[in-house]
Amino acid sequence: YLAVIESSGGDVFKNGQGTSTLLCRLFQNGQEVDTTGNEHTYKWYRMDKNGNAMSGGAVFATGKSVAVNGTHVDIKTTFICEVN
Questions:
Q1: Comparing C-alpha atoms, which of 47, 34, 32 is closest to residue 80?
Q2: In whole angstroms, what is the distance from residue 42 CA to residue 5 CA?
Q3: Is residue 52 very low, low, confident or very high in pLDDT (cuts 50, 70, 90)?
Q4: Residue 64 neighbours by CB under 8 Å, 6+ apart
Q5: β-pairing, 65-69 with 61-62?
Q6: 3-state secondary structure of 38
Q7: Is the entire prediction scored with pTM above 0.85?
Q8: Other C-beta atoms lying within 10 Å of the C-beta of residue 45
Q9: Residue 33, CB half-sphere, CA atoms under 13 Å: how many?
Q10: Shortest CA distance to 51 belongs to which of 76, 25, 16, 31?
Q11: Which of 12, 8, 7 is nearest to 76 (CA)?
Q12: Quick one: which of 40, 27, 34, 21 has its CA closest to 83?
């Protein structure tokens, strides 16, 4: 499998402003699978600017897509999606 995260609002939030929907697309042998998000479990996590887990490593959100805004970002935040 290959997981690709797409952002509807780009990858930059200025001064805590902006919104985006992150979508995790899952591919197997070059073909997208689980387009509805019902075949696999999607868990989203956040890492801070130093690469440390935010929120004590707790799951930030679940589902194939997640809405984020400037309040979810602290200077620099990396969003990771774990697919099972």
A1: 47
A2: 12
A3: very high
A4: 23, 24, 34, 36, 37, 42
A5: unpaired
A6: coil
A7: yes
A8: 17
A9: 13
A10: 76
A11: 12
A12: 40
Integer Cα distance of 33 and 25 in angstroms: 8
CB atoms within 10 A of CB 47: 15
Position 53, amino acid: A
pLDDT digits (tens, 9 = 90+) for 17-42: 788 999 999 999 999 999 999 999 99
For residue 44, the tally of other CB atoms under 10 A from its CB is 20
- Amino acid, single-letter form, for residue 40: H
Q: Which of 11, 32, 33 is nearest to 21 (CA)?
A: 11
**How many alpha carbons fall within 13 Å on the CB side of residue 70?**
7
Instruction: Please name which of 47, 48, 34 lies closest in space to residue 83, comparing C-alpha atoms.
Output: 34
Name 56's Cβ contacts closer than 8 Å, sequence gap at least 6.
none
Give 25: exposed, middle or buried? Use CB within 10 Å, 0-12, 13-18, 19+.
middle
